Amino acid sequence: MALRYLFSQMSLHCNRTSPLLQFMFQALPRGSKKYALEHLSGVRLCAQLPAPSVTDIKDTQKANSSASAAEKIKNFDEETKKKLKILQLEYEVMKQLGSFRIPDNMTDELWLEMLTFPTVSARKRYYRYLKKIEAAKLGRQLKRQQKLENRQIKEQDEPSQSKNTIFLFIRKSTMNSFYYSRLAHAMMFGQPIIIDMSFEKYMRKQDVHRLCEQFLMGYGSNKVHPNPFHFVLSGNQSNSMFQNCLDNTRVNKDEEEHFLMTNSDQHYLNLYPKEKLVYLTPDAPSVLQSFDHDAIYIVGGLVDKIVSKPLTMAKAKKEKLKMAKLPLDNYVRWGCGNKSLTLNQVVDILLEVKKGSSWTEAFRHIPQRKIRHLFKDRAFTK
């Protein structure tokens, strides 16, 4: 009450742009500021700035990252600076020849990453990866621009008119609140699914980025599912490449409301009882015949494009965990490509069988290019 009375008197005797009123407001704690704004109608502080937009926040984060990379390059020793100049000269030669797919622009962060590749072939592969990302980004920009132009042409040709409809307009924020409520319920009472993030040392940076994309797609499928899993990231360190990639997908890194999951750096054996854990690995000797709603399944967070060793099976065997593989060979006659599945495909399959569907229906989430024939109502026996 005293705070309300004080501000009411100040609003009567002071101008709205009074420096004294602005100073008193800025000196208040956060909770008192909220209280003052709620109860003092008609008092506008010119010191209040509009909230920064999404673009402004991302530009600030990008500028800070570029500044740190520039400082690292500036503090290099002579030998490292010489190596960097050689790599930049190699890049210019490749760019002039035009026979290699290389990106048009290289930032300081990318040059720091290029220093970690010891061979020319490794650098060429990473150049192709960067060029692919650059082309995809340019394609999205052109598509967005074309969509905007088409909308403007449509508005000129057909002036907007109010339309009467019996259907209620549902906003995206309303749908997200509905999905988040189910995710929150799954975190408290639902079945967990663990993603083992301890294989980052076996992957290249581009593989970690692919794993992050697969995780986001799997999280999106789980988010809209009627009975979602409780996502658990196990062994995910705060300074890992995967966590950095995950942070870049958020505008505000201090807020994780739209990632309703458990993100832990602890081992899964410290989080859940060992007898309930089942490690899903394609190299397991036993086959998962049916979905167990009481089990806690573990999926390896690994993109094994260059890794041919059975890392997930070796880890499960070392920790003496139960392991199983999906009954792919019993229902699928494979076509072109390998038999490996991505993280989001495994999540989609498990979500499908969790709600009571058959394996045949669940395996429809496998890309059609990999399937020569999918058997219905019966298992395929060799």
Automatic annotation (TrEMBL):
Q: Mind telling me which Gene3D superfamilies this protein's record contains?
A: 3.40.1280.30
Entry GO terms, CC: mitochondrion; nucleoplasm
Task: Kindly list the GO molecular function terms attached to this UniProt entry.
Answer: methyltransferase activity; tRNA binding
Keywords from the UniProt entry: Coiled coil, Methyltransferase, Mitochondrion, S-adenosyl-L-methionine, Transferase, Transit peptide, tRNA processing
PROSITE patterns assigned = SAM_MT_TRM10 (PS51675)
Location in the cell: Mitochondrion
Question: SAM-dependent MTase TRM10-type domain spans which residues?
Answer: 179-373
Q: Which InterPro entries match?
A: MT_TRM10-typ (IPR028564), MT_TRM10-typ_sf (IPR038459), Trm10_C_MTase_dom (IPR025812), tRNA_m1G_MeTrfase_euk (IPR007356)
KW Metal-binding (keyword) present = no
Main localisation = mitochondrion
Biological processes per GO annotation: methylation; mitochondrial tRNA 5'-end processing; positive regulation of mitochondrial translation
Write the protein's name: RNA (guanine-9-)-methyltransferase domain-containing protein 1
Where does this protein come from, organism-wise?
Octopus bimaculoides
